[in-house]
Each structure stands twice: as structure tokens, then as C-alpha cells.
Amino acid sequence: MSLLRPADFVNTTQDYQQVKALIETYLQKVTTLGSFSALSAEEADELARLSRLAEAWEDSIPLMPIAVPTQTRVRVADSGR
Questions:
Q1: Are 57 and 16 in contact (CB under 8 A)?
Q2: CA–CA separation, 79 and 43 (whole Å)
Q3: What is the per-residue DSSP string for 4-22?
Q4: 2-28, pLDDT tens digit by residue?
Q5: 44 and 13 in contact (C-beta within 8 Å)?
Q6: Nearest to 18 by CA among 28, 8, 3
Q7: Mean pLDDT of 46-61
Q8: Is 0.70 topped by the overall pTM?
Q9: Which phi and psi angles does 43 have, rounded to 5°?
Q10: Radius of gyration of the chain (CA)
């Protein structure tokens, strides 16, 4: 059930959606059978690999800056940090 080899990169949103679908397949198996030990060693390795691919894609998406409330900045400044 391998995907995206040999490159091992998620380059498009479509790639990412495919990776997520494969991850979901493994998670459904785990849920149905009640334990991650239900996965074979190869399936567990593939789930870990796919999870790393998805995480790398998600980490590459810039997030909107989150404004720090003024009170928080004042308290940090007052604490000497």
C-alpha cells in the first residue's frame, strides 16, 4: 500500500490528500482491531513514514501570525524575561 516512492515527498495538495487517506486506512484498522499491535511491522513502518510525510507538508504551510495580547506582553516585560 505504498505511495509516492521513490521521492518520498508530498509536493501537492493532491499528494497530501492521498497520504491522509492512506493514514486513515491504517487508523481504521487499528480502531477496528483495538490496538496498534494489530498492524504488521511493515504496516506500522508505513504508517510512521506516511505520518512523517504529512507532518512535513503541514509544517511547510505558513500560519497567520497570532497577536499576543497586550497584557501578556506587559506581564512578561515585568517579570524580567
A1: yes
A2: 50
A3: STTT----SHHHHHHHHHH
A4: 554 545 788 889 999 999 999 999 999
A5: no
A6: 3
A7: 92
A8: no
A9: -65, -40
A10: 19
Cα–Cα distance for residue pair 77/41, rounded to 1 Å: 51
In whole angstroms, what is the distance from residue 77 CA to residue 81 CA? 6
Q: Which pLDDT score, from 0 to 100, does residue 75 have?
A: 55
Give the span between the Cα atoms of 8 and 31, in whole angstroms.
Answer: 26
- Look-up: residue for cell 500560519? 63
**Residue 77 predicted with pLDDT over 90:** no
Cell numbers placing 8 = 518520498
Separation CA 77–CA 53 (nearest Å)? 39
CA distance 73 to 51: 36
Number of C-beta neighbours around residue 50 at 10 A? 25
